[in-house]
Amino acid sequence: MKFAYTHATPDPGFVEAVAFANELSSMEGFWQEIAEAEQFTYTTVTPAAIAERLRACTDVVNILHIKKRPITTAVTDPGMPLTIYVNTRRFHNRRVRDKVNTLVHEFVHNVDFFRDGAQSKRWNYTHWVKDHSDRPKTAPYWIGNLAERWWELANQHVPEDQRRAIVKAKGVPDFAGAEDFGCEIAHVPESEIER
Ligand SMILES: [Zn+2]
């Protein structure tokens, strides 16, 4: 999991979030936690297999700016490999921790669609349903929320080797649901990209 963010006028919150997410990638306990999670909903792929696939993706994922309708926080375009589009209209109401959550959530979509071996170019562990109540139990939401929880524990100066036990004991809160995160999987036309 490696992100690059080279926008001409970068958002300081995303700069910080990218730095943390890139660090998170080298933390063994983070991947173990995903591997040991309860089975996610709307998928037959096991958490252990998902953890392995995410971890195996070491290609750089680029972050680009777009302007979308207000409700969407971030977009994955099935026609655009390893790219995350973040909506500048949603920057103002999002903290660094929310941005960490967003990046890791979208990374799950990227790997699912573009880096999933024989099953690529299909959605194998996503959240398509209209009913949103199960969202925290899907792989993209749960793993994004886990990343935010690790950000929280890191900022509380909890040592890396103790974070896993804390999360195991207390579970992963639904941060994305609480702050009304909006994810879209859609084609992003060039005209919407802010260079
Ligand atoms: Zn999503």
Tell me about this structure.
By secondary structure, the protein is an alpha/beta fold. It has a single domain, classed as Collagenase (Catalytic Domain) (3-Layer(aba) Sandwich), CATH 3.40.390. It has seven helices and six strands. The chain has helices at 12-24, 28-35, 47-56, 96-114, 139-155, 160-170, 175-178; strands at residues 2-4, 60-66, 74-76, 83-87, 183-185, 193-194. β3 (74-76) and β4 form a beta hairpin. Strands 1, 2, 3, 4, 5 and 6 form a six-stranded mixed sheet that branches. Bound molecules: zinc ion (ZN).
What are its keywords?
binds zinc ion; globular; alpha/beta; 195 residues; Collagenase (Catalytic Domain)
Q: How does the SSE layout of this entry go?
A:
Elements: E1 2-4, H1 12-24, H2 28-35, H3 47-56, E2 60-66, E3 74-76, E4 83-87, H4 96-114, H5 139-155, H6 160-170, H7 175-178, E5 183-185, E6 193-194
Parallel strand pairs: 1-2, 2-4, 3-5
Antiparallel strand pairs: 2-6, 3-4
Bound molecules: zinc ion.
Zinc ion binds at residues 105, 109, 127, 140, 183.
